[in-house]
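Aim 2 progress. For Transthyretin-like family protein, the working sequence is reproduced below.
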Amino acid sequence: MLIRSWAVTVVVQYIFLISFTTGTFREQSVAVKGIVSCRGIRQPGAFVQLYDEDAAPLFDDDDLLGSVTADDRGVFCVRGYTTEVTDIDPYIYIEHNCGYEGLDQKHFFAHEIPAEFVVEGNYSKKIYHMGDIELLTRDAPVQHYERRTPVYDHRQFTKLTLHQQIIHCIPLYVAYKDYYERVSFFAKNCDTSFSRLTSNSNCVNTIERLDILLDYQNGNSLYNAW
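Predicted structure tokens for this construct:
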């Protein structure tokens, strides 16, 4: 029984080898274009890979034909070619965490390329346009996710008056307005004893003298009173 099974295996492999060697190797290429999105928001930097699915996975893994990173608009265009006896079966592969944020796990998007977009040669001018690719699926565990982004104060990019600088840099100005109107600003580092009186560390480098608080102990008493 074992001998018969071994003989059948040898015959099958022999037939496969004959058909493989008698075939003609052909260069085949494909090009794909699309836009990667997650919850309708484009994904710059998404890594897109183009593979050829191997007909005999036991003998060889899927071949990587090309890869590309989506631009700042989430748009990508990836090309690739290979030499095969049989027709290739290309597909797009994108690994991502859309819908899996905070779960420390990845998901993937895969899409087969229609056979009519596979052409002869090593460069395809016939591009398969996929349009918008939404990575979020209905079965994803995280359907709603709000990404925290830093909020910048637009005032730091504009030139402020002396009065505005005082308000911005010294919160105690509200309680001690008369005192802080005697402040003078220079481009030197201020004494570290005043750093605790500022709400922004950048303001510390703009204060050179605060006449009413030259006595550090007096400064502490004013701060504690606030």
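The CA atoms of residues 137 and 186 lie 57 Å apart. This observation will guide construct design in the next reporting period.
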